[in-house]
Design goal:
Blueprint: E1 2-6, E2 15-16, E3 20-23, H1 30-36, H2 40-43, H3 55-62, E4 74-80, E5 87-95, E6 100-105, H4 114-128, E7 131-135, E8 148-149, E9 152-153, E10 156-162, H5 166-174, E11 178-187, E12 190-200
Antiparallel strand pairs: 1-7, 2-3, 3-4, 4-5, 5-6, 8-9, 10-12, 11-12
Length: 203
């Protein structure tokens, strides 16, 4: 089937919201990101459900978003404009095929509306990127009513969450994502229900 995919810039251009700065990741962000990735209440919702063992592990994880690998993702660290220089989270597309949106925010930053603010702003930048036509064998979980324009299926952006993660479900719903289906998965020896949400590219 024919659809479109974004062409990621390298380096990406930083952008701001009323309260936040979203910018490309830098190697010197390791200490702040290690704090984020060693908070159990944050990491329990990730696919590994594990905290980073040490700073070296965090640095290894970061490598997928640093040059030259930044050309294959569209991922940003998040700072407060009121407290520049301190990374409090990440937001963006961390998987290019199929395109997937995700975010993490330090637990002491929860309840401020930062996640919704960051994801909404990131989506605007993501949809503004130039596109290319591609042929893909897209495997969807569940059902999503999808538009076709001149034989080209409207591009979809995906987000996966654990069903119990009600806070993220609310954030993604506010950003326009729609639940399409779910399935049981085995994560670290435990059965969890993973929910698949999709957002169609706006016209």
């Amino acid at each position: 089937m024919k659809t479109t995919r974004p062409l990621f810039p390298s380096p990406a251009v930083p952008f701001t919201t009323p309260r936040l700065l979203l910018r490309p990741m830098r190697a010197e962000d390791a200490a702040d990101l290690h704090i984020l990735r060693t908070q159990y209440e944050v990491m329990k919702w990730t696919s590994t459900a594990k905290m980073d063992a040490d700073l070296a592990f965090t640095a290894s994880w970061m490598a997928r978003f640093l040059p030259p690998n930044d050309a294959t993702t569209f991922n940003f660290v998040v700072e407060e404009l009121s407290n520049p220089g301190r990374v409090i989270g990440i937001a963006g597309s961390h998987i290019a095929e199929p395109p997937e949106c995700g975010y993490m925010l330090r637990s002491d930053m929860w309840g401020k509306g930062y996640a919704t603010e960051a994801v909404k702003a990131w989506l605007i930048e993501h949809w503004k990127l130039p596109r290319k036509e591609v042929d893909v064998d897209e495997q969807m979980i569940g059902h999503f009513d999808r538009h076709v324009d001149n034989g080209i299926y409207r591009e979809l952006l995906r987000a996966d969450i654990v069903e119990d993660n009600l806070a993220s479900a609310k954030v993604l719903k506010k950003c326009g994502f729609v639940r399409a289906g779910s399935e049981q998965q085995d994560e670290n020896g435990q059965k969890v229900t993973v929910v698949y949400l999709y957002l169609e590219r706006p016209v």
